[in-house]
């Protein structure tokens, strides 16, 4: 795989640029009205978009280690 979704490329971006790549992906999978709202006071939401008439709020998480993100997600489900 290459391009903007290449794992090595994404790892090199770091957490601040990762939402931009997710934003690009949303446009490719036919989301509309995609807006990056990430920043201070975003209440955890990074991107807004519409797909098939439904509004979506996405939170983007970038971690160098898979275990770290898995553990964080498990904690947030409780």
Kindly list the characteristics that best describe this protein:
78 residues, alpha+beta, 19% strand, globular
Helical coverage, percent range = 25-40%
Coarse morphology = globular
Given the structure, what is the number of helices? 3
Structural class: alpha+beta
Order of helices and strands: HHEEEH
Give the distance, in angstroms, between the N- and C-terminal Cα atoms.
35 Å
Question: In angstroms, what is the radius of gyration?
Answer: 13 Å
Strand content: 15-25%
Concise structural overview:
This protein has 78 residues and is of the alpha+beta class.
Describe the structure.
By secondary structure, the chain is α+β, with helices and mostly antiparallel strands. It has one domain (3-77). The protein contains three helices and three strands; from the N terminus they run H-H-E-E-E-H. The chain has helices spanning 7-13, 18-28, 66-77; strands at residues 32-36, 47-51, 54-58. It has a three-stranded antiparallel β-sheet with strand order 1-2-3, covered by helices on one side. Strand 2 (47-51) and strand 3 form a beta hairpin. The longest helix has 12 residues, at 66-77. The protein is globular and about 35 Å long. The N and C termini lie far apart (35 Å). The model has no long low-confidence stretch (mean pLDDT 85).
């Amino acid at each position: 795989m290459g391009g903007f979704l290449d794992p090595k490329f994404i790892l090199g971006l770091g957490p601040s640029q990762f939402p931009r790549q997710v934003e690009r992906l949303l446009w490719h999978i036919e989301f509309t009205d995609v807006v990056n709202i990430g920043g201070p006071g975003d209440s955890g939401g990074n991107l807004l978009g519409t797909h098939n008439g439904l509004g979506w709020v996405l939170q983007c998480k970038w971690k160098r280690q898979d275990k770290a993100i898995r553990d964080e997600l498990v904690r947030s489900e409780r």
